[in-house]
Known about the structure:
The protein is of the alpha+beta class. The protein has a single domain (5-80), classed as SH3 type barrels (Roll), CATH 2.30.30.100. It is built from 1 helix and 6 strands. Strand 5 and strand 6 form a beta hairpin. It is globular.
Amino acid sequence: MPLNCNMHDNLEVACLYGYELEVEMTNGALFCGRAVTTETRPGPMEVLVLNVKGQHLVIAMTEIRIIRAITTNPYFSQLDINPQ
């Protein structure tokens, strides 16, 4: 399921400005890193690319539960991507 436009716009801003994010996965795992980009991959599958300790981590949006902004910003503090 594609993200709604508002959430996608907020993620694009996070990538544009390189916000630090905490990503909580549906399986409970947590990742912290700098937002790099969003992409649509074959399938189609939307992904978020994070820079985590110098490595690009590609995360499927369907596996993300919540994204929290660590970087203070005027756009969002938390995005509930796939709330349970």
